[in-house]
Design a protein that fits this description.
The protein is of the alpha/beta class. It is about 35% helix and about 15% strand. The chain folds into three domains: about 30 residues, no CATH class; about 110 residues, no CATH class; about 200 residues, P-loop containing nucleotide triphosphate hydrolases (Rossmann fold), CATH 3.40.50.300. The protein is built from 14 helices and 13 strands. The longest helix has 18 residues.
Length: about 375
């Protein structure tokens, strides 16, 4: 299919590595085809993820899949972010395009790493920044340093958990699909807002098509994608009800640009500070003795899910937490089968998936 006459609604591109190359043919828009596919049969579709909503809205993700008519619902996380976390935005950093930006990020991160006693992920948006940070930190860091590329990801994570005070530097593959629970990971530092590279061929093609249609590629595509990517990176910090830690977002555009409010509004409700002293105090006081009771009410969950059993069509669920308070908002009567359903949440017990399977035997499920 990749030839001199690429179909108008596709972009042809290639990717090279040290040993091989790969050819791709990527559709510019899948909304129409997925809408048709999803409506072809009588089945329920379940999508669950903590990153579907942007600023409490599903509009972007729905538009991507052509499911604008879906009903939506958003559940709060069961984690107590107000007492278990802190968002630190260091003051005085230059704009990300400045030549010395990564150098300044590492200088700002060092006192935070000392306060956290290592136990940190440093997530970068480029391999160039990662390599620069690794070279600088090797000479000044007092904790074990693990760098993406030095070993397979699984091995780096094994060493990170075993060390208990390591600092791990990673790029894209460490922003998602990584689960480190407990005190071994108590700090996540992100160097920049994760906007896609302007040289990305798929981004260029999709942005060009949107501009021709009179739409804004930045607001309707680049910004939502960056928000989702940031939420994935931030999600590495709190993985368990007993986890606690500091999130350090270094990009000054969070506060200097209007779109920064969209990023902040899409994150969990963390106390925010620009004072290093607050970070040091957070790590100095230790975990709170008051543990929030978040025992899951299985009978309430089961009752709510069985109420949904008659639904046919699209059932879209993105769950951010299961506790008695959110589930009281689930209506006792089944939702209308004539419209899709969307919901959202941050953590999902495995027994809920089993309950869905029992309650919706015809469901096609996708857990993101």
């Amino acid at each position: 299919m990749i030839s001199e006459s690429t179909p108008a609604d596709y972009v042809a591109w290639f990717e090279t590595t040290a040993r091989n190359f790969t050819l791709y043919l990527t559709p510019l828009d899948i909304a129409a085809s997925f809408r048709q596919y999803a409506s072809a049969g009588k089945k329920a579709w379940i999508f669950t993820s903590a990153t579907l909503a942007i600023n409490k809205s599903f509009a972007y993700f729905q538009a991507q899949l052509g499911l604008e008519e879906a009903e939506t619902g958003l559940w709060d996380s069961p984690f107590d972010y107000a007492s278990q976390t802190m968002l630190y935005i260091p003051p005085g950093l230059p704009v990300p395009s400045a030549p010395d930006y990564t150098d300044c990020v590492i200088d700002a991160a060092l006192p935070v790493l000392r306060a956290s006693r290592g136990r940190a992920f440093l997530l970068f948006t480029s391999h160039r920044a990662l390599k620069f940070a690794a070279a600088k930190l090797r000479d000044v860091l007092d904790y074990p340093l693990l760098v993406q590329g030095d070993a397979p990801r699984s091995e780096l994570l094994r060493r990170f958990r075993a060390a208990g005070n390591a600092v791990l530097l990673g790029t894209g593959s460490f922003w998602e699909g990584v689960d480190v629970r407990g005190e071994a990971l108590s700090c996540v530092i992100i160097d920049k807002l994760p906007f896609a590279s302007p040289d990305d061929p798929v981004l260029q093609a999709r942005a060009g098509a949107m501009e021709q249609a009179g739409r804004s590629p930045f607001m309707e595509y680049q910004l939502p994608e960056a928000v989702i990517a940031l939420k994935q990176g931030v999600g590495r910090l709190i993985r368990d009800e007993n986890d606690r830690g500091v999130l350090m977002l270094c990009d000054p555009r969070l506060l200097s640009k209007g779109y920064g409010r969209i990023f902040l509004a899409s994150l969990p409700p963390m106390p925010q500070t620009k004072r290093l002293e607050d970070v040091e105090q957070f790590f100095g006081r230790g975990p709170s003795n008051a543990r929030r009771d978040r025992r899951y009410r299985r009978y309430e969950v089961e009752g709510a899910l069985r109420a949904m059993a008659p639904v046919r069509g699209i059932f879209w669920l993105s769950v951010s937490g299961v506790e008695d308070r959110p589930w009281r908002r689930v209506p006792s009567a089944p939702w209308s089968a004539s419209r899709p359903i969307c919901c959202s949440s941050h953590s999902l017990p495995i027994y809920m998936l089993r309950l869905w399977q029992a309650c919706l035997p015809s469901a096609c499920g996708c857990v993101a």
